[in-house]
Structure formats: structure tokens, C-alpha cells
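Practice problem: predict the structure.
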Amino acid sequence: MKKLFAGIALFGTFAIAAAQTITFDKTTYDYGTVKPSSDGTRYFTVTNTGDKPLVLSNVKASCGCTTPEFSTDPIMPGKSAKIKVGYNTAINGGFNKMIEVFSNDPANSRSVIYIKGTVDANAPEATAAQTKAEPVADAKKVAKKTKKVASK
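Answer:
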């Protein structure tokens, strides 16, 4: 009987290990201090570190001042996707917002990511790196695609 329970427990461990697994490049995006009405768009990278397709079923913000966008297309094992999060920077003051990410990950069907920062009229002018909404890797891909098209 003990062997039966041990076998079931061992099988259950392998079943969980052989599943879709959600991971994030970061769980908090700090905007720092930004000027009112500046670009409030940021991106979180979601990676499937499991061995089955990962599906994001819903992404919900804690309030109407934050707008997430995502794709319901399956994220294949080892691949990544982006969650686009926009914050309404017309609202002055500090903010700390929660975004819930729902997926088919059996261990983390509900994950939480955060955005935080301060909107202040006295903020210093943003540098190009601070206002760049797309990660550098994506910009390189776009440049490479543009280069290929231009050479044809």
C-alpha cells in the first residue's frame, strides 16, 4: 500500500513538472518620477518555462487608470509574449497599481504584477531611455526587419 501511495505521489510530481509555467521578467515596473501626460506605456515580458502551451485568459487592472493589453494566443514552451500596461499620467501624485494575470499555469493560475511611480510637474525631462516603451531587444528586431525589407 505504501508503494502505491509513493507511486501516485511520484506521478503527481512529474505531472506538475510537465506543465505550462508562467514567469515574468519583472513583477514590478517602477516608472520613477514622470511629468504629467507623459507616455505611461510599459511592457512586462511573460515567458513559458514549462513544456506545454501557456494561455493568458485574462489580465485585469485594479482601477480604470491602468489599462492592460494582452494576447490570448498560446505561448509555446520556451517562448515569450508581452503584456502592455498603460497608466494615465494625467493624474498627479504617487501611484502603486496591481495587475492580475490569469493563466492556465496549474501552480500559478493567478499571478500579480505591479506598476508604481510618481507623476509630478517638477519632474526632470525624461531621457530617451526612460521614455522608450519597447524593450531594446524588440527595437533591434524591428531594425533588422526594416533593414531586410530595405535591401530587397
